Batch of 4 targets.
Target 1
Amino acid sequence: MAITHDGPPAGTPVKASGSIWSNEKTRGWIAQGAIGGLAALLVGVMVWNAQDNLASQRIASGFGFLSQTAGFGINQTLVEYSETSTYARALLVGLLNTLAVAVVGIVFATIFGFLVGIGRLSKNWMVRQVCTAYVEVTRNLPLLFHVLFWYLAVLAAMPPARQSYSIFGEIYINNRGVYIPKLIFGEGSGVGLVALIVAIVGVAILKKWATARQMRTGQPFPVLWTSLALLIGLPFLALAAAGFPVTVEEPALKGFNFAGGARLLPEFAALTIALSIYTGGFIAEIVRAGIKAVSRGQSEAAASLGLKPGLATRLVIIPQALRVMVPPLTSQYLNLTKNSSLAAFIGYPELVQVFAGTTLNQTGQAIEIIAITMGCYLIISLVTSAFMNWYNRRVALVER
């Protein structure tokens, strides 16, 4: 009796079902299209709702308000500004003030963090305990508490102008801020800036040459002192050749306040100190963890070569630990920049206080102002991340 097979002969390709859902690629496209359409519908509803609300409140949309007169003053400006300036100028002033706090805060937080992080690994019991106490106290208190403490309990408690604390007879500290001598650059002082740029380029070339020379001959070159001589000496000589068109304006007490010189606002000082100390505690833990991640054999190898502990830490341990530290350091730098928005609590005129605060209250352009503020912080974060990623690639191990 013959046996028959109902299926197709062996090796015959099986045709796919005619349903579109049987094709995985087609299903993926349909799902993505549905999600994209839903997202577009949601955005459209939000835009329509926003336009309807603006129309009902008689608020014009768009960015034309940036060319209007601001009409309010700002007590710290790094560029020329007055009450007759535009909202765009006020935005620039707030952005520069934010960048000033961020840059100064990052520098001091890094210094504090490295010193305390290394101190936590010190063999000296007292140094180790003090650094541990610093980390535990700073990291476990809210940042806003740090800001208010330095502003209300320290700087606001300073004496009035007539009883100012004097440092070297030229720097005065009181409850209105810190007054320091101010450099006034006259005509022809631009030659000093050109000389400084030339000196910076020369330092970069010198460092590259010194590294290549040491790799070739094994002889070190005093790059640090030579670089300092270039950065200080070359601009000084250029200014001297131009007749030294730079004068110093010292602060002087006149009446109930100081006149002349440069003034550092107590709000700026409080915010910078708070951000530096607070972020420094987190950086200290990053530094400690990075150093601990380096093999103990590296320290032993450095000691066997006759390097002292301090020199071994600077030349052997820290360069290797940086490969571990840079990524979390980037996060701390970004956090410090964004945390500067807490300045609104003490009245420091940074981006949020000037633009998302005063400007928003006067114009009512909430959507545009929030979008601009978000864009500014996004650009700052992306630029910071790009720089740190570049540096991370420079210090990373190169496989051969």
Note: The two ends are 72 Å apart (CA to CA).
Target 2
Amino acid sequence: MSLRLPANVANAFADRKSLMRRIGQFVLVIIAIPLVLTPIYWIVPPISTLMIWSALTFQGMERDWVGLDDVAPVMVNSVIMSEDGQFCEHSGVDWNALGIVLDREGGPSRGASTIPMQTVKNLFLWQSRSYVRKGLEIPLAYYADFILSKRRIMTIYLNIAQWGPGLFGVEAASQHYFNKPASKLTARQAALLTAALPNPIVRNPAKPSRAMQAKARIIEGRARAAGDYVGCI
């Protein structure tokens, strides 16, 4: 004798199975997007999720893509020495720095992120801090570092980083704050732009606070001593 489930129970199971199938398909699509797009970004200038959101919410989206040859070397040095001193040494994730920051209270912070991690976060993920987002950043950062060169990762990062409401990329930021191309930035201006990165909505490189000026002086000194730390660029 075969047992039949009541129609309402059978329908409930069918609906649940259908829902799980749709969730699985959605997850696969989310995973596939960075896997497919990252190699394309060797050639195609990408836009970030934050840039898309800024445009959709009418905050504006100003960005002028430039190659790394059109960015002052001191700007590159400033970013590496401030954001990710081991950029040329690791393969996408700096586990020593990550372990130190994850041990702190309050969840993972920007200090736990390498430049590849910040790049994939800006390209594919969301901005709010969470262990879930950090867990996604790690494999994506390894993948990006494997597929792309260090120079290309830095080029992408500098062109998608936010420097103000609706303001993205180092060229647009340099023109907006200092009325000059990124290729002409001075060491001080590069340090001020870098000092603004952790909180670009409230930090103005053209009108820095005392705390921001102090941080910029530290960054400027580190950039001068960059040496082999930036050899991969």
Note: Residues 7-40 form the longest helix (34 residues).
Target 3
Amino acid sequence: MTSTGPAPWLLLVAAAHLGFQLTVDLVVYPALREAPDDAWDEAHARHSRRIAPLVALLYVPLVLLLGWTVAVEPRAEGTWLAVAGGALAVVTTAALAAPMHGRLSSAPARERPDLLRALGRVDRIRTVGAAVCLVGAALLAV
């Protein structure tokens, strides 16, 4: 590993991404589930406004670093483990979590618990992806 290559940066961003995912999974979504029906619309809107910049702040560098890593370390096992985990998290976010949030913003109160449970399951997939990405990044850093 060199300080000029992507490995230390990928390790840093992958660790931040896993911390973010764990916070969402263990703190943010449980708090959303506890929002009373009469406060739901505002709670979900505040969450959406606040989380979007953080997602961009983490996912853009993550994707760029994964691309850089593939370009300079294509034969390293850690590269492909990090790419697999990162791709799982990013694709799951785009294909499942974001659309679920869209449905949650307009779902009737009776449908919300099922959607929130489904979102929790999807978030665990994203968290596993972030963990796998971090393991790959750690392998590259040694």
Note: The CA atoms of residues 40 and 71 lie 45 Å apart.
Target 4
Amino acid sequence: MSQLITGIHHVTAIAGDAQKNVDFYAGILGVRLVKKTVNFDAPDVYHFYYGDEAGHPGSILTFFPYGDITGGRHGKGMLNTTTFSVPLSSFSYWQERLKRFGIATKEPQERFDNELFIYFEDPDGLGLELVFNDRDERPGFTYGPIPLEHAIRGFHNVEIWEEGYERTAGLLTEQLDHQLIAEKSGRFRFAATDKPGNYIDILCTPDSLKGLSGNGTVHHIAFATPDAASQLEVRQRISKRMLNPTPVLDRNYFTSIYFREPGGVLFEVATAGPGFAVDEEMAHLGEGLKLPEQFEPHREALIKALPPITLHLDQYK
């Protein structure tokens, strides 16, 4: 049987101030703003997509910057940490860069005996890590504010906290083509493809509080599937597990289905295409405000409602 799930597609989180979000991710972290559009369910709210130079699945972190809403709380039943993959040789560079911009970090740590990482948070409190490794062959952003040899390559892994790992593990291995590839100290690592950018870590945290949605928390994680046909096959699998997936929804740059896994995290399965160059040339990704067709007649009103944002990348070099 062919593999229907190939890895992580994207992670979507909730943010506050739109300009601070752009400054942090496109500026300090130096990932590319590949698409500036709006929330399908709340078109007066931006939807930002950040990723590698071409916006490949496995590199895309997206945000709904809602403005001044209540901050969320990390806890069980949530994806609490999203990690980026960077070269092992870039450790000193990133330590100095985060310090330069006043980003507080925890002390460097190791995981699974050989995985060096630094934990920090974005302006809204979203949990992030840089994982330093020499296994990632993906290219960096060639003309971003970070020198190419130190640039973020995409995701490394995500970290989900659960009461127990068994039911979510069953879903990952039986319906979503993942395998258990590592286990240590209550951390269970799964992957559909054993490469940086595709690792799902489940932590058993029965004593932690239940997470609460709000600024600084993850809304959902999306898994990648090759095309519409494979997406429908996955949907059949999920339906048989009685997890009530949504119908297929058109998100312009991919199509999606959504469902909640047994621990409460919202999962999505998204197609690899058509991709972010469908309405902008690759060299100009993220430059214009792109609206779903149903909102195009309201462009003028939406531009007035959305806060203006500016890319100030030169000051982050």
Note: The chain has one domain: 7-316.
